Amino acid sequence: MSTDPTWRRDACAIAGIGTTAFSKDSGVSVTALAVEAAAAALEDAGLTPADVDGVVRNDMDLVSCAALADGLGVPHLTYWGEAGPGGSGPAAMVAQAVAAIMSGQATTVVVFRSLNGRSGRRFGLSPVVTPEVGGDETFEEFFGPYGLLSSGQYFALMAQRYITETGLTSEQLAQIALVTRKRANANPAAQMYERTMTLDDYFDSRMLSSPLRLFDYCLETDGAAAVVVTTAERAKDLRQAPALIRSVAMSTCRHPQPGLMYPTLMREDITALPSRECQDTLYSRAGLGPADVDVAQIYDCYSITALIQLEDYGFCKRGDTGDFLAEGQIDLGGAIPINTSGGHMSEGYIHGMNHVVEGVRQIRGTSTSQVEGAQVSLVTSAPPPAASALILVAA
Amino acid sequence: MSAAAAASAATTAQLRPLVTERGSAGFFSAAAEGRIEILTCEACGRRIHLPRPRCVYCASTEVSWQPAPHTGTVYSHTVVEHQVHPLFPVPYTVIVVDLDGEQAGVRLIGNLPGRADITAGTRVHCTFEDLGKDAAGNPVVLPVWEIDTDRENTGSGEE
Fold first, then answer.
1. End-to-end CA distance of chain B
2. ipTM score of complex
């Protein structure tokens, strides 16, 4: 496999991870959540706020880098940054921390995502409240007047087109919800820890926007997650075994379209995602391929999003994915166990940041659904507007 | 448009497009005159949709609005069963329409009442719904889509 000589493998590491409880009503501000998760990540690493000189946030976060630093008690920041868009951001946020460290702008960077996704702003509801929709370079004037108003409806259009082209069945698609629920049932921190699911439960769930049912959707969650990124050299002397950052990558695809989400329906193929371009860079920088990946946390705002990325990151061929799912290949013991904490669909929706945390746990060997001997851990952050991903390896 | 179709369109498309983009204004100005027009590059001839300030394919700044067909086929659809907006009671169907004869990606969105009986490849045609005038007094006309019962499916979306 060709490799990218300009990327420096294993130069940085994730040294600490932290999360809050995942709930439907945190009862506190998003800043309080962010501080709690960041403090937990520092404690995990054996570092103090005085060690932190950089912060990276998500572009959709309501907490500023300065507010987090203030709440955490960081005396002096030399670097702050932001990445997105939205759920495409978390791996790119880690990439930005690496860029800051490698360019000498920071040594120890907290990367966080915090949201009251159920008690505060709910992503599943249309933000449109006036009788007029569009303007401000959103291009939503082409979509909102027809009732295309939520991300779930967008992904339903993607799923329906995918079904048309490949013949994917509902039973096959259901496997993503069923497997990730099993992982959540093993994870006491997951919102769906005590809620088992059968195929009948899946089919009994409400159709929200055909062909996607309730259980094809992610959860709505109040919570935060954070990681601490530093040099690999420094990380080896800290409290936890470092998860080395073997590779990071970010990508849009050709003609990414204006606006945020709905305009991507104007791409030549709406089932082609920027993760397809992202994986080329990711694997090239890593000097690894999909066959080397032991466990993957795949961004799953909807089941179909995870399904298409399984193809894009090279785990199965387009058209074979339905059978791949039906054969149990994403379950523990399968070809590529995914979303071992329960992911967005059953652990909680921290907009991709909980996937980064779980990717680290797999390298440490501390997941509640540990893949035996996992050495290479993939984390993806997802489309449609852009994609990013990272590969973590054991030191 | 039949009276029944006009009534159904009027009850399903109640959000008005807010046209503040110069690019979008070209599209909606054409719609107000009963035409679908797509921004077109005069240098390379490709269609640019959604409108951009210059050609995204060859970077030419010579772009203009040119007519497009008023017929197409369903590329994808979803029946919305869970209501997310007070002006859109469920169920209703959102369609993505491939315009006939256009390059891939030149698509418009439509709304069909209820649980429309359609598949990829179902033929549709465009009519225009007059939503009155905006605050500046400009006409606001929304292109809307109906199932074309006179023509066979093209089968372009077969499995």
1. 31
2. 0.94
